[in-house]
């Protein structure tokens, strides 16, 4: 088993086709198939199932694919560390940002990285917490922000302890106190998203307490939700820094209130099986600095 075979396996599994993988790798299809056949023969296992619809991994192939991703990442980290010893800090670094934080972090983070570490090529990916954790475990990202499980003892240092807020037109929130209970939300027309973890938690807790929300629609994009709320369609719930960001940008068309009892804790996650290079550590340092700076401005 060699590194090239592992890279070929990764490409085929991700492409779902030997033909597509050969194009991506710029390797002749017969040569690619032969290397995978040699790997299967060496292991004494079938790794791929070939059908008219394409190629999919067997259980053994899926296991090797997952481990191959980590191995390739470790080799890349070792190469980067070697270059760094010679004074060359750079290369691609995958950074995951939570969807609710991306609007006020992504551009500031990119600018700082280009200014302070021009040799690094940042690859910023936006997603929900579980998606980013999976991307780290699959070796598609190097570091990512994640929401720590509610009620569990944090396994990661808490970088940000952030309340949730409801955002809506000033007229809709007029007369409401600065801090609201969950029951107060039942009086508001709400835009929600069934895929957003914070909305899932709110709706599950409401059901447990015998409450029901006035859901007027579902919008995945917080930017779109803010625009619709500014036009008077209702209110939406988002973490406080994101709430402050959209309120500041609304020119007085939006206001906010804190929702008590639903603080979320944010930490930084990396795969413990992959050694972090100086480039990754540089990105981590700058990400934390930008996060703290923006949090001071918005919280």
TrEMBL record:
Belongs to the LysR transcriptional regulatory family. The keyword Nucleus does not apply. Keywords: Activator, DNA-binding, Transcription, Transcription regulation. The keyword Transcription regulation applies. This is LysR family transcriptional regulator. Residues 1-58 form the HTH lysR-type domain. SUPFAM superfamilies: Periplasmic binding protein-like II, Winged helix' DNA-binding domain. GO terms for molecular function: DNA binding; DNA-binding transcription factor activity. InterPro entries: LysR_HTH_N (IPR000847), LysR_subst-bd (IPR005119), WH-like_DNA-bd_sf (IPR036388), WH_DNA-bd_sf (IPR036390). It comes from the Bacteria. GO terms for biological process: regulation of DNA-templated transcription initiation. Gene3D superfamilies: 3.40.190.290, Winged helix-like DNA-binding domain superfamily/Winged helix DNA-binding domain. It holds the Pfam family HTH_1.
């Amino acid at each position: 088993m060699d590194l090239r075979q592992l890279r070929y396996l990764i490409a085929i599994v991700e492409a779902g086709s030997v033909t597509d993988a050969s194009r991506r790798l710029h390797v002749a299809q017969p040569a690619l198939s032969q290397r995978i056949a040699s790997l299967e023969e060496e292991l004494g296992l079938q790794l791929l199932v070939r059908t008219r619809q394409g190629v999919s991994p067997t259980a053994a192939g899926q296991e090797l694919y997952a481990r191959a991703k980590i191995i390739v990442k470790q080799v890349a980290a070792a190469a980067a560390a070697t270059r760094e010893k010679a004074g060359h800090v750079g290369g691609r670094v995958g950074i995951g940002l939570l969807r609710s934080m991306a609007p006020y972090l992504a551009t500031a983070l990119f600018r700082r990285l280009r200014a302070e570490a021009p040799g690094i090529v940042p690859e910023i990916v936006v997603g929900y917490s579980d998606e980013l954790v999976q991307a780290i475990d699959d070796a598609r990202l190097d570091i990512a922000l994640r929401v720590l499980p509610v009620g569990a003892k944090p396994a990661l240092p808490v970088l940000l302890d952030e309340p949730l807020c409801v955002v809506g037109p000033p007229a809709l929130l007029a007369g409401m106190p600065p801090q609201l209970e969950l029951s107060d939300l039942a009086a508001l027309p709400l835009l929600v998203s069934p895929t957003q973890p914070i909305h899932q938690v709110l709706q599950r807790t409401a059901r447990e307490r015998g409450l029901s929300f006035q859901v007027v629609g579902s919008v995945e994009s917080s930017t779109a939700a803010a625009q619709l709320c500014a036009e008077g369609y209702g209110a939406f719930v988002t973490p406080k820094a994101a709430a402050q960001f959209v309120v500041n940008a609304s020119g007085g068309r939006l206001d906010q209130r804190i929702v008590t009892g639903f603080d979320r804790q944010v930490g930084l996650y990396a795969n413990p099986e992959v050694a972090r290079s100086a480039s990754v550590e540089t990105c981590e340092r700058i990400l934390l600095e930008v996060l703290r700076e923006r949090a001071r401005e918005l919280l």
